[in-house]
């Protein structure tokens, strides 16, 4: 069983598992509640609030964000696409005014 420590400070409650921050809970002055879950590297992997919003994230072994999804339907993932191109195919980006 891990050693679980709970630290309360004002409206913030933090839980540590074997010395590593695992969860945080807050309740704002207006009554809104938030719950955050962290991975072992201290990065947020899950977030939810009392207004129904939720968000999930994943990271690679180096800690780089590779996936994000939320309850509003937004999804994002990191895809590196590498290809060899000719210099003539490289064109400067044109901004629309």
Topology:
Elements: E1 4-9, E2 12-17, E3 20-27, E4 33-38, E5 44-49, E6 54-59, E7 65-70, E8 75-77
Antiparallel strand pairs: 1-2, 2-3, 3-4, 4-5, 5-6, 6-7, 7-8
The number of distinct β-strands equals 8
Number of self-contained structural domains: 1
Total helical segments: 0
Q: Round the Cα radius of gyration to an integer and report it.
A: 20 Å
| Order of helix and strand elements from N to C terminus | EEEEEEEE
| Mean pLDDT value | 88
First and last CA, distance:
61 Å
**Main structural class:** mainly beta
Strand order of the largest sheet: 1-2-3-4-5-6-7-8
What spatial form do the alpha-carbon principal axes imply?
Answer: elongated
Helix coverage percent: under 10%
Please give the largest β-sheet. Answer: 8 strands, antiparallel
Q: Low-confidence spans: pLDDT under 50, at least 5 residues? A: none
Percent of residues in β-strands? over 45%
């Amino acid at each position: 069983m891990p050693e679980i420590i709970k630290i309360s400070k004002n409206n913030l409650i933090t839980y540590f598992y074997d010395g590593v921050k695992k969860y945080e809970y807050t309740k704002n002055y207006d009554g809104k509640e938030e719950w955050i879950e962290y991975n072992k590297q201290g990065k947020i992997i899950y977030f939810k609030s009392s207004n129904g919003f939720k968000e999930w994230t994943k990271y690679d072994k180096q800690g780089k964000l590779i996936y994000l999804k939320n309850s509003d339907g937004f999804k994002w993932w990191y895809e590196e696409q590498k290809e060899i191109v000719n210099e003539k195919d490289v064109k400067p980006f044109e901004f629309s005014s």
